[in-house]
Amino acid sequence: MNPRxxxxxxxxxxxxxxxxxxxxxxxxxxxxxxWVIERNASSLLEMTDLSKRLRADLGRLFTIxxxxxxxxxxxxxxxxxxLVRFADGVEVECVLMREGAKATxxxxxxxxxxxxxxxCVTGAFGAGRNLKPHEIVGQYRLMxxxxxxxxxxxxxxxxxxGEP
Length: 164
Hints:
With 164 residues, the chain is α/β, with parallel strands linked by helices. Helix content is 27%, strand content 27%. The protein folds into two domains: 5-63, DNA polymerase, domain 1 (Orthogonal Bundle), CATH 1.10.150; 68-159, no CATH class. The strands form three sheets. It has a five-stranded mixed beta sheet, covered by helices on one side. A two-stranded parallel ribbon has the order 1-2. Helix 1 packs across helix 2 (26-37).
């Protein structure tokens, strides 16, 4: 059996193109893309404007794979630090900072570090890897679900490791 194709980290056009051969009408593939991109669906089952049968059929071919939150630390200032785990077991941190109608997401782009500075905890973990696009986008999607309607703007900060 072939592994399911992850829809996270792709553009709406890419998603629609992947789904199109598996639906009866072209607009269905665009519906799936809207659910993933605009509505931030975490499961194909959430796509209630698709029939149950179509959702089940697509679920055998596609997935919406996101990092799993392992721990969340809430700060007194309203910030949240997440420890998330990816499918291969690699863990990274990402941070959500709230400030009125604005939020800032600090997204990890790497896991581990090959530099090995003695003053840095990350260096003790050894060489890691660059994160895949769906892993970075997954952090964003996870934190977007934590925001309420009062947030008008989201800033993104991309963090690397071992940047002395």
